[in-house]
Amino acid sequence: MIKTLFARLKQGYRTMPLPVKNESLPERFLGRPCVRPNISKEDCQKCKIICPTGAVGIEGDGLLLDLGRCLFCGECQRICADKAITFTREYRLAVKERKGLIISNKPEQNSREVKKRIKHIFGRSLKLRQVSAGGCNACELDINVLNTVGFDLGRFGIQFVASPRHADGIVVTGPVTKNMRLALEKTYKAVPSPKLVIAVGACAISGGPYIGHEQTNDGVDSLIPVDLYIPGCPPHPLTILDGLLKLMGSAKC
Ligand code: SF4
């Protein structure tokens, strides 16, 4: 027992304060991308060609990058000597509308405003049921990490529960495979109204690397309405946490 107490004293307080400084994220972390203006269809388009999910497009005189499809592999940044696309270290990426995930050189389109209705209804308590709808377990693991002492999700009043009947909403990962469609729809129906749906990761938002595959449904919002999109492959736990806090209206970051 005494050894345990000494170990606890030595370890000190391990839960991270929020907001986290972008610089403290690991060096390999890729956050919100920026796209350079004045790229036309006559330019090399290497970034568009190399992207495995078709996340990069060209419209008018500028590049578009769909964060809902992006795997954050960084290939588009690596291949371009002119730095048409560069990734920043901004981890706050969650949005409530799908169109907010389109990055362009136009002024900020992303709406990160708090849903007042959600704050009013759910206050400072949010119970969520997780549904893995054909995910590879990467997003699921980064959601699980939020329950560790480092992130301590419970301090914000957010908890994952076992039954959808005890939940305020569902957190969906995976591209929603044909096999998981019925399970997802039943789980959604079992959550009492008003309810929230949160799509975590490129697969749940758009199908990710499985876009167009006959065995998937290309993400959650083809079946049920989504209240929050959290992009990434998988999203960093801080990106998920920031999204959940934004949804509750309690984020100060
Ligand atoms: S980082 Fe995203 S946009 Fe760039 S190549 Fe990879 S998937 Fe495509």
Notes on the protein architecture:
39% of the residues are buried. It is built from eight helices and ten strands. The protein has helices at 2-11, 46-50, 75-79, 116-122, 138-144, 178-190, 202-206, 237-248; strands spanning 33-35, 56-59, 62-66, 85-87, 102-103, 126-132, 158-160, 169-173, 196-200, 228-230. Strand 6 (126-132), helix 5 (138-144) and strand 7 form a beta-alpha-beta unit. The structure holds iron/sulfur cluster. Iron/sulfur cluster (SF4) binds at residues 50-53, 55-56, 65, 70-76. The site of iron/sulfur cluster has 14 residues, from helix 3.
Biggest sheet, spatial arrangement of strands: 7-6-8-9-10
Overall pLDDT: 88
| Secondary-structure class | alpha/beta
Please name the CATH topology of one domain: Rossmann fold
Low-confidence segments: 110-114
**Ligands, ions, cofactors:** iron/sulfur cluster
CATH C-level of one domain: Alpha Beta
Reading the helices and strands in chain order gives: HEHEEHEEHEHEEHEHEH
For the biggest sheet, the summary is: 5 strands, parallel
Radius of gyration: 19 Å
Q: Which range best describes the helical content: under 10%, 10-25%, 25-40%, 40-55%, 55-70% or over 70%? A: 25-40%
Strand percentage lies at 15-25%
The coarse overall form would be: globular
If helices are DSSP runs of H or I spanning 4 or more residues, what is the number of helices?
A: 8
Total number of strands? 10
CATH architecture of one domain: 3-Layer(aba) Sandwich
Distance between the termini: 39 Å
Counting copies of identical and different chains, the oligomeric state is single chain
